[in-house]
Design goal:
Elements (H helix, E strand, L loop, with lengths): L8 H21 L5 E7 L5 E7 H9 L2 E4 L25 E6 L5 E3 L6 E8 L11 H14 L3 E14 L27 H6 L1 H13 L4 E6 L5 E6 L5 H21 L2 E4 L13 E8 L21 H21 L5 H4 L12 E3 L6 E3 L9 E3 L8 H18 L23 H9 L5 H4 L1 H20 L3 H7 L4
Helix pairs in contact: 3-9, 5-6, 7-9, 7-10, 10-12
Length: about 475
């Protein structure tokens, strides 16, 4: 994947050569592919882009193509927000765009054979566009590169499969054999729940293989019709986030084919578990050793090394101001409730699922933390950028975390993570750490975007108002 490249001609030439070779091999392998979808993730992790004919694809390798710069700063509804540049105030200008090497892949679910590729945006002078989520993530990687550290991470995505034959959202719970009625209860970790969707899973794994998305294990989660698919760890955070957004797209396509609707909303059902985006992360030094363990732990048990403690401390210190990114919309905050396996407190501990930062059981080489706050509706690039900002903040300032929650320890939760959208945006606005990593301007745009959508959402009059108040008042 690309690193910030400035306007270096040698870098551009190398990229073009790489893309020419990649495209040539792809078109030979998929000679019937008649078009290519060009994709970029916006502020919310929603893919934007366009489709081009096969005859025009080769032109994209040797030349930048124009694309709307404001496309990565729209609301969740795809609308511009006054006061944010590259929008309605300044004529909605285009920026140069270029394909991302290594991202060309077939799209196996379209009616006619087609392909896809990621692209990124650049400033007019050739520098990476400051509001492209890839650029923001790359900026937060730089402090670790300077330290000689590599970042190894993996994502876990939870989602619901919904029925597509009802007038209201309904979980696609498994049916009881011989009766045909829906199976009651959560049925968490039940392999029969996976067997019931086996044709769907078969396509997910086959399509992931075609698109080089390293899908790993799948499990039945705590809610009816809820599942989780993990991605294998990777030492390139940008590529790991590419794979996460592309996996969501792929799962949605597979669900449609098999008569479902895939739902990545953070909390689709009030009384069932919500959908999270859990990120596992460790650091590796230049000698290939786990920076968190330094080889001293045979198992993930305290006392932990200073680097791990400092990383956790930085994550907890920045968590309140980062919650607006971990929980980016109105529905996100329905998930952040106590006793629902979603973090609401600034806690960490070993092998404990009530904490925000969990240290999974592992050996010394695999010692890592699991960040459990973000919802499946969040932007993986921005979530990872905030996590890296927190880790660097903790290492740089040698912070110490609060007392660790012991394995099996009962927890009395306090809501020290903002659990309401307005409060989270207020904490983000007062943040002192994230602007130095994500960029002051970008933080301002994000805040304006989210406040505008927040206001519009709360201006709506839902059916709930009539149910509660029409007769009563």
């Amino acid at each position: 994947m690309l690193r910030p490249s400035g306007n270096g001609k040698n870098t551009l030439m190398a990229r073009q050569i790489s893309l020419r070779t990649e495209l040539s091999r792809h078109l030979k392998a998929w000679p019937k592919s008649g078009s290519m979808e060009l994709l970029i993730a916006d502020m919310h992790g929603i893919l934007k882009g366009k489709r081009v004919r096969r005859s025009d694809v080769a032109k994209l390798v040797d030349n930048a193509f124009p694309f709307c710069g404001g496309a990565v700063m729209l609301t969740s509804l795809g609308e511009t927000v006054p006061g944010i540049p590259y929008g309605e105030d300044d004529g909605d200008p285009d920026l140069p765009a270029q394909l991302v090497p290594g991202s060309i892949a077939p799209v196996p679910w379209t009616r006619r054979p087609s392909s896809q590729a990621m692209f990124r945006l650049f400033e007019e002078d050739g520098a990476p566009f400051y509001a492209d989520p890839r650029t923001i993530l790359e900026r937060t990687i730089e402090p670790f590169t300077k330290r000689g550290l590599d970042i190894v991470m993996a994502t876990e995505l939870e989602f619901h499969l919904l029925r597509n034959d009802t007038d209201s959202p309904t979980a696609a719970a498994a049916r009881i054999p011989g009766i045909g009625l829906e199976q009651p209860g959560a049925q968490v970790y039940n392999p029969e729940e996976l067997r019931a969707i086996e044709p769907f899973l078969d396509d997910v794994y086959d399509w992931c293989d075609l698109q080089n998305i390293p899908a790993d294990s799948a499990i039945s989660e705590y809610g009816p019709g809820q599942f989780e698919i993990n991605l294998k760890h990777h030492d390139n955070p940008v590529l790991a986030c590419d794979q996460a957004v592309l996996l969501k797209r792929l799962i949605k396509a597979a669900a449609i084919k098999h008569g479902f609707v895939a739902c990545f909303m953070a909390k689709p059902f009030a009384d069932d578990a919500g959908n999270g985006l859990h990120i596992h992360m460790s650091l590796v030094d230049k000698n290939g050793r786990n920076y968190f363990s330094r080889g001293r732990e045979s198992l993930a048990s305290p006392p932990f090394s200073k680097p791990l403690r400092q990383a956790v401390a930085g994550l907890l210190a920045t968590m309140p101001e980062a919650t607006a990114i971990f929980a980016p919309n109105a529905n996100s905050y329905r998930r952040l409730r106590p006793e629902m396996y979603a973090p609401v407190d600034l806690l960490w501990g070993v092998n404990h699922r009530d904490v925000a930062i969990r240290i999974p059981s592992s050996d010394a080489g695999n010692l890592r933390f699991e960040h459990r706050v973000a919802g499946a509706d969040a932007n993986p690039y921005l979530v990872t950028a905030c996590i890296l900002a927190g880790v660097d903040h903790g290492l740089r300032n040698k912070l110490e975390p609060p007392r660790m929650i012991e394995r099996g320890e009962p927890v009395r939760l306090k809501t020290r993570i903002p659990t309401r959208w307005d409060k989270a945006l207020d904490r983000f606005a007062r943040g002192k750490v994230l602007p130095g990593y994500l960029g002051v301007d970008y933080c301002g745009h994000f805040l304006r975007n989210r406040r505008a959508e927040n206001q519009r959402y709360h201006n709506q009059v839902p059916v709930q108002d009539f149910l509660w108040y029409l007769s009563a008042v």
